[in-house]
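Progress narrative, work stream C.
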Amino acid sequence: MNAKKYGKFIIDEQIPSYNEYINKCRANKYNANIFKQNVEKAVGMYIIKACRRDELPVFDDTPCIISFTWYESKANRDVDNIQSGQKFIIDALRKYKIIKNDGQKYVKQTFHRVARSDTGKTYVVVELLEYNPIEDIAVI
């Protein structure tokens, strides 16, 4: 049996919440687009670093499961707003050509865990695992 494709990278900063993005949209739709692009570019720098260290392979046509572990330094953000940051991350994975597309054909499932950071910093650990419909039947 072949080993599954696996990749991991850490985003060493807080990803904006859905509320922050909505507030940008309400203020000015053009600024909201610039805001989203800037967040994706910041995430992209972590993606590039992980690729250079051979920690994140290109999945291209390979369907995957994405797991997010959100480490929060404080317990002041709602869980749903924390997890909404996946949109910026998945869009950056597509933009930087790690995944071919973010549709259901390529991203089969996402999983989230929110934990208290023991370092005092807010960060995200993102893991991608090749999806195998036979082995991952419980995911369906």
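Work stream C, second folded protein:
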Amino acid sequence: MAIPFNKPHLTGKEAHYMYQAVYNGKLSGNGEFTKKCQQFFESRYGFKKCLLTTSGTDALEMCAMLCDLKPGDEVIVPSYTFVSTALAFLREGAKVVFADSMNRNPNLDAETLETLITPRTKVIVPVHYAGVACDMDAIMSIAEKHNLLVVEDAAQAIDSYYTSNIKHRTLPLGGIGQLAAFSFHETKNITAGGEGGLLVVNDERFIRRAEIIWEKGTNRAEFFRGEVNKYGWVDTGSSFLPAEINAAFLWAQLENLDEIQNKRKQLWNCYYEQLKPLAEKGCFAMPDIPDYATNNAHMFYLTLPSLEARTALIRHLKENGILAVFHYLSLHSSPFYHDKHDGRQLPNCDRYADTLVRLPMYYDLSMDEVSAICTFIGLFCQMYVKKEDQIGRFRN
């Protein structure tokens, strides 16, 4: 038996639409499939303006550029996240201030957020880890109080929602802050052929400039719509548009989004039900989903009692043909940023960095394979807790 950590799903229409894009004669981006994908997100989720990008990282970099940061400005970012979340703002000259995770899940701890704000703070960047919403009512209230921008890193959060007690309705993740970024990397619920992303603009103040930055700093898009009689270089920008064949690939995935999501949720629930008895015995903790959040089944993870236990579990699964992986290392302790961090302890980020393990999760995974994975995890727990020096770690 060999079960990979991830396997990109093909709906069957990708090659057909890519062939169609080639013979439409428009390959460089912003063609028919790019527009269809953007309109899908604007229509389905009510986002004001959507622009496809070559990656989630590029979408974050566009967000950072739109924030118009100045040297010395501060941006609050969770330490337990992928490097792109911080790097996008660092490249604009901002100082990154790292926040700790919640105790109950890896999302940014909104209860301690306000203690990080100074007169130099300009932006808060909540990351919806595993597609589970941060406490956005609290974050948006703090941002409004201090006149800060909120950029949602929704890389993992497609088709996931937050129930707002303030607005008395359910809101799509990526549609709450002024700006947001999604990823269509091959490890995400849907992909644009390996890489891809989406910039979401929810604040009308940023729409025109977003399109200019997207078009390499030119007003080229306005020209092709007939809004100006010529186009030129009017602002900063870069080559953020994906090729049309990537948009065509993504369109095939979007057409099947509901089917993909339903299958992933079935797999997630299968994991949860079969591993719940072991979690109740204290062998590990399972994902926490607050009442205000929905589950988009982006990942299924466990948090083990210790680094040693996690290492042993990953090794045990690998020996049985199952590839499970740990996730982020805390950015505040990274070799690049360690000497720039202010020295604050971020214990929850470090705990997740040491103990969190991601299990295989992809559309083509079968229920039988999930059951086999759970069986091997159960065998591991039986063997591991017999070691006297580890029993306390599992029980506590």
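The chain has 13 helices and twelve strands. No further action is required on this item.
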